[in-house]
Amino acid sequence: MRHEAIAPARTGEAGRSLQLARALALLLPAALLAGAWGSQLIGGLHPCEMCHWQRWPHYAALAPAALAFAIQGRARVLLIGAAAMLIAVSGAIGVFHAGVEYGWWQGITGCTSTIDLSAGASAEDRLRAILNAPINRCDRAPWTLAGVSLAGFNAIFSLGGALTIFCLLTRRAR
Fold first, then answer.
1. Bridge pairing between strands 135-136 and 112-113
2. For the whole prediction, is pTM greater than 0.70?
3. In terms of DSSP bridges, do strands 144-145 and 148-149 run parallel, antiparallel, or are they unpaired?
4. Which of 71, 127, 133, 146 is the most exposed place for a label (fewest CB within 10 A)?
5. Are 169 and 80 in contact (CB under 8 A)?
6. Helix count (H) and strand count (E) of the chain?
7. What is the pLDDT of residue 125?
8. pLDDT of residue 6
């Protein structure tokens, strides 16, 4: 029985491509999540509902990407591919969200707010907190750079990164 067919050795360009794809599959969602959390906690840009939707696939991509560092053989490639798919899903949500922000189409969600409803507060205090809370609209970009919103940047980096990972996975040794 030939064991090399089960876990072929990756050498040369194909091996480097696989290592790069694996690193990118882990580092890209981690970096984008760090940027999202940084803009929220340091920059004061509170996410709307669709912003949170974009984060979920990145959280999910971290698990198979990290596991790909512990697994050998074909399963590693499948895990990296799964992470790339999840990154692409976040990018697709980013495209949809950016389109809502730019007015290309209507969103499917209401606005969200960050409210501190402390357990010991009275009903009057809670109502006041609700009425005074800032509303985070999904159809308004709280920040842009050169006309591109955070959702737009997520779409660009996520879809570009997922495509790069898939290209790296399909490289063959020459």
1. antiparallel
2. yes
3. antiparallel
4. 146
5. yes
6. 5, 4
7. 73
8. 41
pLDDT, mean over the chain? 82
- In single-letter form, the type of residue at position 52 comes to H
Take residue 27 and report the two structure tokens written for it.
């580092």
CA distance 37 to 7: 38
Long-range contact list for 107-116, CB < 8 A, 24+ apart?
Answer: 107/50, 107/138, 107/139, 109/48, 109/49, 109/50, 109/138, 110/49, 110/138, 111/48, 111/49, 111/135, 111/136, 111/137, 111/138, 112/47, 112/48, 112/49, 112/136, 112/138, 114/46
DSSP states of 1-48: --GGGTS----HHHHHHHHHHHHHHHHHHHHHHHHHHHHHHTT-----
Measured between alpha carbons, how far is 10 from 94 in angstroms, rounded to an integer?
34
Q: What angle do CA 96, 158, 100 make, to 5 degrees?
A: 15
Residue type at position 46: H
